[in-house]
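Cont'd.
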Amino acid sequence: MSRPPSIYLDNAATTRVCRDVSAVVVECMEEEYGNPSSAHHLGISAERRTKQARALLLGVLGDPDGTLGDVVWTSGGTESDALGVIGPARARGRRGPRQRHLVYSAIEHSAVRESIAQLCRAGWDATEVPVDCHGVVSVDELAAAITDETQVVALMLVNNEIGTIQPVADVARAARARSPEVHIHCDAVQALGKIAIDVGELGVDSVAFSAHKIHGPKGSGAMWLRRGVKIDAMWGGGGHQDGLRSGTLNVPGIAGLGAAVRLADAEREEHAARWAGFARMLLDSVRAAGCRFQQNGAGAPRAPHVLSLAFAGVPAEPLLHVLESRGVLVSAGSACSERDRRPSPVLQAIGLGPEFGTVRLSFGRETTSADVDKAAGILVDAVQSLS
Amino acid sequence: MQSSHSAETPPADAGGAPPRGLIVLRLGEIFLKGRNRSSFVRALVANARRLVAPLAGVTIEPAHLRLLVHHPPALERRVIEQLRHLFGLHSMSPAVGTTRDLDAIGAVASAEAARLPPGTTFKVETNRRDKRFEMTSQEISREVGTRVVRATGLPVDVHRPACVIRVEIGAEASFVFSRLVPGPGGLPVGTAGHVALLLSGGIDSPVAGWSAMRRGCTMSAIYFHSFPYTGDRTREKVLDLARKLAPWHGPLAVHVVHFTDAQKALRAHGAAELAVLLYRRMMMRVASRIGAGERAKALITGDNLGQVASQTLDNLAVVEDAASLPVLRPLLTFDKSEIIERAQSIGTYDLSILPYDDCCQLFVPRHPVTRARVIDLVAAEAGLDVGAMADELAARAERVMVG
C-alpha cells in the first residue's frame, strides 16, 4: 500500500533519533566498545563516555557538580519510575512493622500506576488524588492525603496525554511539612528538554527520564536520586552503579542520552516558542472551521510540545485512521471504553465525557510550520467528515 | 566450549546409514471411502508432505492404510507438532520397525517396556495386517508378552493395563509402538471442494473456517474492511487470524473488501434498525460474487443461532436470501463456550480477543429488529442498485495471500 509522506505529530510517543545523536551511539558501538568496568584503556574510554553523559544530564538538571544527587542509568522511563516508586517502598517496608501507604495523582503514567498496583498486591495501601478539570492536582488535596503512614508520594512533572505541568515543588514542600521522611518521586519523562527542570527547586528525591522522547535512542533512561536517599535495587548482579542497578552499562544508550540532552537543552527555548506557535495555528484552524471541540488542560500551565484536542461527537479511533490515511500521524484517546478498548484514565480524570474523541498532537525538533499548516487543514477535514 | 560440545555428540554410526526415526500415521474416516479412497490418500500424502517440507530429511511413504514418516531422530517432536495440522489423520505413533521374527519383535517390545517406570502394568496387542502370518494375533501377543516379562519383570494386566504395547505385522516387516498421539480427524483438505469464508476479527468465524477445512474443504477468506472505522490494525489482525488457519490448509487467499462507502450508502438509504441486515445482505452478495469467481460451492459463516440480533432464525433467512451460493454455518448450534474452547485449541482465541472494531456495529441503533421479513429488506433496498454495488465491491477487493 502506498502511503503519503508522513507528517509526524506524535513526538510525545517517541521521536526520530537525530543524526548527531546516532553518530555518538554508533561510535560507542563500533569504536569505544569497551566495558566501563574493565581496567584497560577501552574500558576507561567507555567510562569516560558515561561520565560525560552524567555531567550533561546533571548540568541540565541544575545540579552540575552532583552535590544534590546522582544519576542511575536505566533502560528507560518505565524502569526509572519502577525504581523510584518500588525502590524506596521496599527499602522502607523492610525496616520493620512500619505502615505501608502510598499517594499518587490520578494522571500518573502507567509505569507509576502499575508499580503502585504491584505494591498494593503485596499488601500496601494507596490513595489516588484526583485532578481538577484542567488536569492539575491540588497541592492541598495531595498534602491532605499524606498520613504518618505514607512512605512514597508520586507526582509527574508534565502529563504525557494533555501536557499539563503539575505543581511538583509546592507538593514536595507541603509533603515534607506533613511528613519529613516521605520519599517523593517525580516522573519527568515528558518534561526533559521541554521545560526547565531544577532538581534543587523541585525538592523531590527521585526523578525519571527517558532518552527516546528527546531524539535519543530507545532502551535508554536515567533516574536522578537525591544523595543519602535509600532505595532497594530491582534486581541483584554484579553490583554496578552502587548496587542500585546491576548490569553492564549500556554505554551507547547512555552516551546517546547525553548527546540528546545536550541538544534538547541548547535548543529548548527556541523550540518552545515554535511549538507554542504551532499549537496556536492548530487551535485557530479548528476554531475558524467551527468544529465543536475543547482543548484538554486549557486552563492550566502546559508544556509546549503537547496539544490535546477533544472533538464532540467524533470517535477518536476513526479520526486517527483518517488522519493517518492522509499522512498525519498522531495519538488518539477516549474517556469511554468503546467495546474492549481501554479508556484513558487521564481523560476520565479530567471529566471528559464519552461523546468526545481526543487526539494528541505533539511536536518535536523536526516539526515544521509548513507541516503543521498542512496538518491543520487535514485535521479540520477529517473532523468534519466524521461529525 | 567447542571441544566439550563435540565430545557430547554421539559418534556417527560406523559405516551404516544415519539412524532414522519412524512415525506411523493412521488415517481417519478415509477407510470408509470405497472407490474414492485413492484420491483421498493422495490428498492426505500431499498435505503431509507440505507440512513436513520445512523439516530437512523427513520423508513420507504411503503404506496401504498407513503413512510412514521417516525422520532424523532429533526431529521427532517437530514432526509430530507439524502433523497435528493434518486433517484426515486419526492418530500417530512413534514406532520402531523390525522384521517379522518373534524374537526380534520381543527384543524391540522389551526395549520399549524398559522405559516404563518399574511396576507399570502392561499388555501386548497385536494387529496382523497380513492375515497369512502363521500365528493368530492372540498367540503373537502372548509370545511377545512373555518375552517382555522375561526381559523386564513388568507385570501383565490384560484388563486394565497402564500401558499397551502394540505390535503390527505387515507383509514384510513389523512395527512396535506404545504411544498414541491423536490427530485432528476429519477429511484431507482438498477432497470436498472449495468454499469462501466470511472472516472477521471475532472469535467465531475462524472456528467456522477451521470446521469447513476439517471436512476437507479448501477455502479462501473474505474480510469486509470499513476504513477509517476499522483501522489497519484490525485488517492486520484478520490477516493474522488467516495466518493461524494456514497451517491446516496451506497458503490461503484473503479478499479484503473496502466496504465503507457501501455501508454509508446503505445506512443513508434504509431505516436505522435494518442497517445490520442491509450490511449483511450486501456482504452475502459480494461474497457470492467473489466465491463464484473461485469456483466456491458454498459460503461459510460463523453464525451462531441467537448470539446477536442478526442471528435469529428470521434474520438469518433474510440475510441468506441475498446470497447466490449456499450459506453453511458450521457453528449454528454450538454454545459460545464450545466455540471458545475450539478457538483456544486451534490457537485463534488469543488473537480474536484483541480489541477490534466490528464493521457491522457502525451507525447502528441500540435496538435492531430481531424478526425482519425479506419484503421489508427488499423495500429498503428499492432505489439502490444493490447488484451493481456488489459487482463494484467485488471487483475492487484486494487479494492477499497468507501462509
